[in-house]
Amino acid sequence: MNMIKVSKLFYIEVAMADMTTTDQLKIPKHVAIIMDGNGRWAKKQGKNRTYGHKSGSDNLKVIARAASDMGIKYLTVYAFSTENWKRPSTEVSFLMGLLRQYLKDSIKNAKKDNMRVVVIGRRSDLDPDIREAIESLEVASKNHTGLTLQIAINYGGRDEIIRAIKAYEIEKEKHPDIELDEKLFGDFLDTKDIPDPELMIRTSGEVRSSNFLIWQLAYSEFFFVKKHWPEFTSDDLMEAIKAYNKVSRRFGGLKDES
Ligand code: FPP
């Protein structure tokens, strides 16, 4: 096991036997992304924040296609958090409008790209037409066999866990014999049937997880990139995958088990 110095503060452990060339890269099955920095990126261009969000939403289409081309099976993106309601109402309305449009466009795009789209998060707070658009898209794309794009809308990891506990309690009333374990608990989460991400990427330089998939990211590798989301490219995604390939994943054990 070698230690590679990547900065004064951070070291990554690299199993030399695991080093691969680009054409032998191990592609993670599931990548999660916190698409941060739309506002800062727009400001840098002398534009308003809404321009940044529109560009961010356009970039998601590009990156989802790139992820699919690379052989990634699941891509989860944080589009709107349970905390984002605290933003000015004009920005919230703009983001909801973008989501509406994204969901509508996705019916056509999902068919063209053979992409399945699912949404996680608390739907009850969303406008009825957005809930309907989500349901139509999920139904229309459910048999597509390419990339599964999982969009987190009005999503918070803590909120998801509380909802899962409540759903479990109802089930326990009906079936007192059931025993709670990690596998069973996972079945009550929004991400039921979707494997945990191996890799989580956050753009824009912030080094935190912001209530995103807090149960599912327990053993994921985190990759933080300085670029803002609208300027994040498929090459940057590939860089993150290369970095992921250099890390030895031990899941609390002693040897590489990935
Ligand atoms: C962070 O930028 C971005 C969000 C609030 C969530 C991501 C939203 C999008 C990519 C656009 C809408 C998405 C879809 C799927 C239609 P920020 O506003 O926090 O930027 P800042 O940190 O620079 O202020």
From TrEMBL:
Cite the entry's keywords alphabetically.
Magnesium, Metal-binding, Transferase
Q: Which residues form a coiled coil?
A: none
Cross-referenced Pfam families, in alphabetical order? Prenyltransf (PF01255)
A single Gene Ontology biological process assigned to it is: polyprenol biosynthetic process
Q: What does this protein do?
A: Catalyzes the condensation of isopentenyl diphosphate (IPP) with allylic pyrophosphates generating different type of terpenoids.
Summarize the subunit comment.
Homodimer.
The name this protein carries in UniProt is Isoprenyl transferase
Which cofactor(s) does the record list? Mg(2+)
Asked if the keyword Protein biosynthesis belongs to this entry, the reply reads no
Positions bound to Mg(2+): 36, 221
Annotated catalytic residues: 36, 84 (proton acceptor)
Q: Which organism is it from?
A: Petrocella atlantisensis
Which Enzyme Commission numbers does its entry carry? 2.5.1.-
* Keyword field contains Manganese: no
Family named by the database record = Belongs to the UPP synthase family.
Family annotation (NCBIfam families): PRK14830.1 (NF011405), uppS (TIGR00055)
Identify the PROSITE patterns for this entry. UPP_SYNTHASE
First and last residue of the signal peptide: none
Quote the InterPro entries the UniProt record gives.
Answer: UPP_synth-like (IPR001441), UPP_synth-like_CS (IPR018520), UPP_synth-like_sf (IPR036424)
Q: Name one GO molecular function term.
A: magnesium ion binding
Q: Which domain of life is it from?
A: Bacteria
If you read the UniProt record, what top EC class would you report for this enzyme, in one word?
A: transferase
Q: How is the cofactor bound?
A: Binds 2 magnesium ions per subunit.
Q: Which residues bind substrate?
A: 37-41, 49, 53, 81-83, 85, 87, 202, 208-210
